[in-house]
Amino acid sequence: MNIQGINHLALMSRDLDATVRFYVDIIGLPLVKAYQTGDVPKWEHNGAVLHDGGNLIAPRHYFVDLGDGSLLAFFDPGQGATLPEDFVSIPGAFHHLSLNVADEEALLAARAELKGRGIPVSGVVDHEFCKSIYLRDPDGRNLELSYFVRQVGGPDDLHDPNPLPIMTEQLALMTSESA
Ligand SMILES: [Fe+2]
User: Fold this and answer.
1) Alpha-carbon distance 130 to 146, whole Å?
2) Is 96:122 a contact under the CB 8 Å cutoff?
3) H/E element holding 57?
4) From the CA of 97, how far away is ligand 1's center (Å)?
């Protein structure tokens, strides 16, 4: 397996707008991706399908770039969401760590290797901007292996259907800068 740094570290947020605002305004990181999982074709968590096209049952995902292309992802717990019991939803808590691999070939090779070692692993999940597989470490931590299909950032990547104020503000800034 050939790991190439962190793709993203996902953390649960109590107040997603305040949290993202802190990382954007105080820490100075750009908001590069914002969506609700209803925007992506399909999303699985440890083999459970949380979302399969248009049916929004999972939380917002807002990502900031740490400066080297690795991302911090913040999730809100979602409202009225029916999430599996093992889906960590405690504000402030670690949710999952995604490690980078180079490409589709490396992802499939890693998946085959994990399966060969008897470690349960999900199928490949297409998040549009990245593709991923999911597994657990011996402590039960959620791990993901991902590769970026494309670079994120720019107005097209901020499309939460029910946007938080920080997203609307950042989108307005981007649009005025490019005008
Ligand atoms: Fe992830």
Assistant:
1) 6
2) no
3) none
4) 7
Residue 26 to residue 179: CA distance in whole angstroms? 26
- How far apart are the CA of 19 and the centre of ligand 1, in A? 18
Q: Annotate 104-150 with DSSP letters as a single string.
A: HHHHHHHHHHHHHTT------EE-SSEEEEEEE-TT--EEEEEEESS
3-state DSSP helix/strand/coil % of the chain, to nearest 5? 25, 30, 45
Question: Which pTM was predicted?
Answer: 0.84
**What is the CA(171)–ligand 1 centre distance, in A?**
23
Going residue by residue through the chain, which has 179 residues, state the pLDDT in tens, using 9 for 90 and above. Answer: 899 999 999 998 889 999 999 999 999 999 999 988 654 444 555 554 444 444 444 578 999 999 999 999 998 876 555 555 556 667 888 888 999 999 999 999 999 999 999 999 988 988 889 999 998 899 888 899 999 999 999 999 998 888 999 999 999 999 998 76
Closest CA to 162 of 11, 13, 16, 7: 16
As given in the structure block, the two tokens for residue 63 are 């990502």
Rounded Cα distance between 61 and 120, Å, is: 25
CA of 176 to the centre of ligand 1 (A): 30
The two most distant CA atoms of the chain are separated, in Å, by 54
Contact 150, 157 (CB under 8 A): no
